[in-house]
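Collaborator request, handled under Task 6.
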Amino acid sequence: MASENQNASLGWFLAGIGLGALVGVLYAPKSGRETRESLASSAKEGSELLRARAREAADQVGTFVERGKSQATEYAQRGREAVVQGRAQWDEFVDKGKSFVSDQSSRVSAAVEAGKHAYQSAGESSES
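Structure tokens returned to the collaborator:
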């Protein structure tokens, strides 16, 4: 039963295609040759349009690539500048640290010497 419904549906479908083709031929505004030439012309115009769009797309991609290269170069330069600036700051901090340590070392040495003198003075005054 299902097979009969499918066969009937297929029959009506094929009949519809045939009827559509017949109506299309009867109401066609041009002859077969004119229709073929029109289709060929449309296909040629379509291919030319496609080529033009492809060229435009290639140009846009080229523009995007150049812009990307430019930005990458700019970011790389900024990175180099940041590294140089960071190294300069680091060197400055190291120099300040060395200076501070040297200054503190001098103060400690002076305090030790003062302590030695005070000890020796105290030892000499207690002996006298």
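The cover message to the collaborator said: "DSSP finds two helices and no strands in the chain. The helical segments are 2-26, 32-127. Please let us know whether this matches your experimental observations."
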